[in-house]
Design brief:
Elements: H1 18-31, H2 37-40, H3 46-61, H4 67-80, H5 84-97, H6 100-107, H7 115-126, H8 144-164, H9 178-193, H10 222-234, H11 242-253, H12 274-284, H13 291-297, H14 304-332
């Protein structure tokens, strides 16, 4: 059977121990999917895996706001980031919420009929653009931690998936069939509709106090989960020299949310600055990462752990750019 992993060889989930096994156990219980490849691909770097799961759980699953609304926002993010794997996954999860007609309308490339749903979906898509005007929010202010945490989690997860996994959610892209989408959603329905206790993923984090939580998260568990992922992902900058780190940050500072042109003009040459190129591709167009890009960077000392960290750094550099602009707008309102 073809592997879904493009550039890494994670340990079989049944061999997981310690924190990785604990994450898998929570995933199975609260997400309803046993060891999804979206998270297995991060398992060679548990310090990335745990806060990624924590941010998704505490915002999408246990955070304030309706699950349908947050799934719509996440689907909008995934469309904006050109991540077909995640678009298909959230379509299935909308079926799991019971919103079958809504899921199928989106699967056909149409916008929601319901005005509130349409606004949430458009809002999620628009969050790719740093500094975009996103007000008024299409949800109550008290639901901000759940919705903002969800879109930021999936801006990160989309990039990880596009960089390190194939595009097929199910073998043979079976999720493209309506009956398969509906059936898959129904198998997840009980878990998706069951309330989750906030904060339970925080025990999986490296440090009980990962740093200052963003103001938009309030006093919810979304804040420390976001801070932990920020700290863990940005540590991957250590795989680049100072000049390459500066290039990544300068490029992201000037990014306007657009996808790069086909010729990738302005990206560093893989023969000269392969690490900076990989990080920037992970940030702006992870679906454009090629075998040649990875091979140009990889050396005998570069393990799967290193590759996950470098991709996570690039991915979160984009998330940080989006979040910083979002935080400034929230602070002014």
């Amino acid at each position: 059977m073809p592997t879904p992993f493009r550039y890494t060889e994670p340990l079989p989930p049944k061999a997981a121990t310690g924190r990785v096994a604990e994450v898998y156990a929570q995933l199975s219980r609260d997400f309803g999917i046993d060891k999804p490849v979206t998270f297995v691909v991060l398992s060679s770097a548990p310090e990335i895996l745990a806060p990624t799961w924590a941010l998704m759980r505490e915002s999408l699953i246990a955070g304030p706001g309706s699950r349908t609304g947050k799934e719509l926002a996440a689907l909008g993010v995934s469309q904006a980031n050109k991540c077909p794997f995640c678009v298909d996954a959230h379509t299935v999860l909308l079926h799991a919420t019971g919103d079958h007609a809504l899921a199928e309308r989106l699967a056909r490339g149409r916008v929601p009929e319901d005005e509130e749903h349409a606004r949430v979906f458009a809002w999620g898509r628009h969050t790719r653009v740093p500094g975009a005007s996103l007000e008024p929010y299409p949800f109550p202010r008290e639901h901000t931690p759940g919705y903002v945490g969800t879109v930021l989690a999936f801006h990160f997860i989309n990039r990880i998936v596009s960089a390190l996994l194939t595009e097929q959610l199910l073998p043979g892209n079976a999720q493209r069939f309506r009956a398969v989408r509906s059936l898959a959603g129904r198998t997840l329905a009980r878990t998706v509709r069951r309330p989750a206790v906030p904060g339970e993923a925080l025990v999986l984090l490296d440090h009980p106090d990962p740093g200052e939580a963003p103001a938009w998260a309030g006093d919810t568990a979304v804040g420390p989960a976001y801070a932990a992922l920020l700290k863990a992902a940005m540590a991957g900058a250590g795989l680049l020299d100072a000049d390459d780190q500066a290039l990544v940050q300068e490029t992201l500072w000037g990014w306007d949310g657009e996808h790069p042109p086909l010729a990738l003009g302005g990206f560093p040459d893989r023969r000269e600055r392969p690490g900076a190129r990989l990080a920037l591709l992970a940030a702006l167009a992870p679906y454009r990462i090629t075998d040649e890009d990875v091979a140009a960077w990889r050396r005998p000392e570069h393990t799967d752990h290193c590759l996950v960290h470098l991709v996570a750094y690039g991915a979160f550099a984009a998330v940080d750019r989006i979040e910083s602009a979002l935080s400034r707008r929230i602070a002014r309102t």
